[in-house]
Inverse folding.
C-alpha cells in the first residue's frame, strides 16, 4: 500500500494522455458507443418481435445485457490490456523487464496498462439500466441502489477473474488466444439472454463450472422480482459478491503461480 501513489500515478498519466488528445478520444468513444447502442437496439427489435424469451420481456433481457456490459467494462479498465498483451510480452521478453522492478508485478501491470476506452461502455450500460428501471417501474430505492453497486462489484470481480484465468496459461503455452476467445468471449455470450432458455447442461455449466450466470441472471431476479432460479435455491440471487471475491482471489493466486513457473524466452 505504501506504493499506492505510484500506481495511481500510472493511471493519472493515462488520463492525462486522453485530455491531450481529447478530439480523438471523443471520436473513438462515440464510435464505440454507437456499436453498443446498436447491440441494444438489435435485442430490443428481436425480443419485441417474439414478445418474450423464456418468460423474460424486452426490457428484462436488456437489463441482463446492461449488467453484463457494465461489469465487463469496469474489469476492462484494469485488466483488458494486461491480459490481452500478456502472451506477446512473454514472447518479446518485455515481461522480464517487469519482473526486475521492485514493485508488485500485478499491480504494476493493471495500473500501467489502465485502459481509458471503457468510459463509453459504462455510460451506455448505465443509461440502458435507467431506461429499464423506468420501463419496468422498478423503484431505485436506497436498498436497490446499494445492492446494484454490490452486484456490479461482484460481477466485475467475476469478469476480472475470467480475464486472468484465460490469460495466465500464457506462462506455460505462450499462445493462449484460442483459450481467451472460447472462455472469455464465446461462452460468455450465453448470458446475454436468460440462461433458463438453454438446456439444463448449459444452465449447470454457467452456474457451477463457469459461473457467468452470477454476473447478471441470478442477481437480476432480485430487481425484477422473478422466481426463475432453475434447479437452484433462491439464495443464489445474493451470491454474486461472494462468488466474485472467491474467484478473483483464486485468479490472483493463479497469476503468481504462473510467474513462479515462468521461463524467459530469452528474447
Amino acid at each position: 500500500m505504501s506504493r499506492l501513489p505510484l500506481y495511481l500515478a500510472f493511471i493519472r498519466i493515462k488520463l492525462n494522455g486522453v485530455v491531450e488528445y481529447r478530439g480523438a478520444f471523443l471520436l473513438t468513444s462515440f464510435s464505440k458507443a454507437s456499436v453498443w447502442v446498436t447491440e441494444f437496439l438489435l435485442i430490443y427489435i428481436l425480443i419485441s418481435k417474439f414478445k418474450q424469451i423464456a418468460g423474460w420481456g424486452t426490457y428484462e433481457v436488456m437489463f441482463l445485457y446492461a449488467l453484463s456490459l457494465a461489469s465487463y467494462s469496469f474489469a476492462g479498465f484494469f485488466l483488458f490490456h494486461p491480459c490481452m498483451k500478456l502472451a506477446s510480452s512473454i514472447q518479446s521478453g518485455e515481461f522480464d523487464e517487469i519482473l526486475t522492478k521492485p514493485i508488485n508485478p500485478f499491480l504494476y501491470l493493471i495500473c500501467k496498462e489502465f485502459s481509458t476506452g471503457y468510459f463509453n461502455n459504462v455510460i451506455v450500460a448505465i443509461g440502458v439500466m435507467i431506461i429499464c428501471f423506468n420501463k419496468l417501474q422498478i423503484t431505485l430505492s436506497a436498498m436497490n441502489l446499494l445492492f446494484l453497486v454490490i452486484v456490479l462489484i461482484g460481477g466485475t470481480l467475476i469478469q476480472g477473474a475470467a480475464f486472468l484465468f484465460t490469460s495466465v496459461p500464457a506462462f506455460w503455452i505462450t499462445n493462449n488466444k484460442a483459450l481467451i476467445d472460447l472462455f472469455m468471449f464465446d461462452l460468455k455470450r450465453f448470458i446475454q439472454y436468460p440462461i433458463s432458455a438453454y438446456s439444463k447442461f448449459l444452465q449447470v455449466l454457467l452456474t457451477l463450472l463457469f459461473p457467468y450466470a452470477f454476473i447478471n441472471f441470478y442477481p437480476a431476479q432480485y430487481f425484477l422480482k422473478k422466481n426463475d432460479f432453475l434447479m437452484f435455491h433462491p439464495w443464489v440471487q445474493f451470491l454474486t459478491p461472494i462468488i466474485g471475491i472467491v474467484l478473483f482471489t483464486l485468479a490472483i493466486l493463479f497469476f503468481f503461480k504462473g510467474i513462479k513457473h515462468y521461463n524467459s524466452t530469452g528474447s
